[in-house]
Amino acid sequence: MRLKSALVARPMGPFIYATRRSPLALAQSRAFVKSVLAEAPGAAFEELQVVTSGDRIQDRPLYEVGGKGLFVKEIEEALLAGRADFAVHSLKDLPAELPAGLVIACFPAREAPTDALVSKRFASLDALPAGATVGTSSLRRAHQVRALRPDLVTTPLRGNVDTRLRRVDDGDVDAILLAEAGLRRLGLAHRVTERLAPHRFVPAIGQGCLAIEAREGADVAALLARVDDPHARRAVLCERAVQAAFGGDCRTPLGAHAFRERGPGGDRLKLFGWASEEDGSRPRRAELDDAWPARDEDAARLGRELAASLLRR
After folding, report:
1. Second label for 17, Cα 20 to 30 Å away, from 144, 147, 153, 232?
2. Comma-separated ranges of CATH 3.30.160.40 domains in the chain
3. In the chain, what is the straight-line distance between the N-terminal and C-terminal CA atoms, in Å?
4. What angle do CA 35, 36, 38 make, to 5 degrees?
5. Does domain 115-196 have CATH number 3.30.9.10?
6. Contact status, residue 255 vs residue 140, Cβ threshold 8 Å
7. Residue numbers annotated as active site
8. 0.85 cut: is pTM over it?
9. In whole angstroms, what is the distance from residue 65 CA to residue 26 CA?
10. Strand arrangement, sheet containing 284-291
11. Pairing between strand 12-20 and 86-90?
12. DSSP string, 137-172
């Protein structure tokens, strides 16, 4: 794919962006590129589609075969080898630590961070009858379901969004849990049965946000900075500091959600965190309320404070 504007005689690029080949990854990557073109009509882009290990391995839960890095490893290799100038990721797929030489150059505006329940017959998580089956590929989601509704049965569910929706449409499971952002980006917001409030059902770290990864000092950084959202950046840097404190990957049932709340006394940062042991035991929650961080370092410090509270519990 090549996106190019004829409005400016001296185009920038072409810049090559790497993306997974799934329908959701392609949709969100192309939408991001269009947002950059809106700010810089003379830019030119080419698309590099990458099939990652996470895309190839569909018969086992991610936490059994390597965790979050499975969806980014081959893409990061393309960046480091110079085959791509930047990559568009779902932030929640990125491990807490990036390979040497790579940085997150841009956090675009965040889509809905919430988890969504999809069901054909039942209106909410609370309405599911005892013994109902809930499909999810996430330990975090599975253990939070069991903490709220120990009478439900969770079952592993892999595959792209369409595959998962077919499982609930065909009656293989009574409900599934997905990121609301993914459904919205695919034009499937109407499939959401219930939006799970993030203070009750804490989302994945970075959920709803894209992360644009590039080589440190890359020429494309200035262009990407045009669409960086400072409020999204501060919120997700706070969340990722929680992840880093836990050494979090797909084997760690961990969630954190930060957001800005406006008030007469000034903007506040609200942060919710949830964690459990790998088997779901010892579920624990923590909350933090502080002034909205003025710097990225302040956001990370607040995330570490919440992580310390969760670890103490």
Report:
1. 232
2. 235-312
3. 50
4. 65
5. no
6. yes
7. 93
8. yes
9. 24
10. 254-261, 268-275, 284-291
11. parallel
12. S-HHHHHHHHHH-TTSEEEE--S-HHHHHHHHHTTS
Among 131, 173, 168, 178, residue whose Cα is nearest residue 155? 173
Angstrom distance (rounded) from CA 131 to CA 88: 39
Architecture of domain 235-312: 2-Layer Sandwich (3.30)
Q: Which residue has the tokens 């991610």?
A: 62
In this structure, the number of other CB atoms found within 10 A of the CB of residue 10 comes to 5
> Are residues 275 and 214 in contact, defined by beta-carbon separation less than 8 angstroms?
no
Q: Three-state DSSP class for 40?
A: coil
Residue with tokens 């329908």: 23
Outline which parts of the chain fall under CATH 3.40.190.10.
2-106+209-228, 115-196
Tell which residue, 58, 60, 55, has the closest CA to residue 72: 55
Q: What SS3 string covers 68-101? A: HHHHCHHHHHHHHCCCCCEEEEEHHHCCCCCCCC
Contact 248, 97 (CB under 8 A): no
DSSP 8-state secondary structure symbol assigned to residue 202: P
| Closest alpha carbon to 88 in 44, 24, 42 | 24
Q: What kind of architecture, by CATH, is found in domain 2-106+209-228?
A: 3-Layer(aba) Sandwich (3.40)
Residue 224 · residue 105 · CB < 8 Å: yes
In this structure, the strands spanning 175-179 and 115-118 are antiparallel
Tokens of 193: 């049965």
Q: Residue-wise pLDDT tens for the chain (313 aa)?
A: 444 433 333 347 799 999 999 999 999 999 999 999 999 999 999 999 998 877 776 656 555 555 557 789 999 999 999 999 999 999 998 988 999 999 999 999 999 999 999 999 999 999 999 999 999 989 999 999 999 999 999 999 888 899 999 999 999 999 999 999 999 999 999 999 999 999 999 999 999 999 999 999 999 999 999 999 999 999 999 999 999 999 855 567 999 999 999 988 899 999 999 999 999 999 999 999 999 999 999 999 999 999 999 998 7
